[in-house]
């Protein structure tokens, strides 16, 4: 779903990716969750021009 929303509705892409992160984390798939968090950071940086939220996402990915 996130790919479909990415260009036209970046805020919805972030929501979809956040839900995916929740499920991946519960399943213990932390590396994949971190990759999705990096995707969120890119959306915030490039599409939504919100550097603060992009940095927060990258920090969560590092955890």
Q: Could you list some keywords that capture this structure?
A:
63 residues; mainly alpha; flat
Write structural notes for this entry.
The chain is mainly alpha-helical and 63 residues long. The chain has one domain (2-62). Helices cover 83% and strands 0% of the residues. The protein contains 4 helices and no strands. The mean pLDDT is 94.
Q: Give the overall shape, derived from the CA principal axes.
A: flat
pLDDT average, as an integer?
Answer: 94
Structural class: mainly alpha
Q: Let me know the largest β-sheet.
A: none
Number of domains: 1
| N-to-C span | 25 Å
Relative helix content:
over 70%
Rg over C-alpha atoms, rounded to the nearest angstrom: 11 Å
Share of β-strand residues: under 5%
Give the beta-strand count.
Answer: 0
SSE topology string = HHHH
Residue stretches low in confidence (pLDDT < 50, at least 5 long) are none
Helical segment count: 4
Short description:
This protein is mostly helical and 63 residues long. The chain is built from four helices and no strands.
Summarize the topology.
Layout: H1 2-6, H2 10-26, H3 30-47, H4 51-62
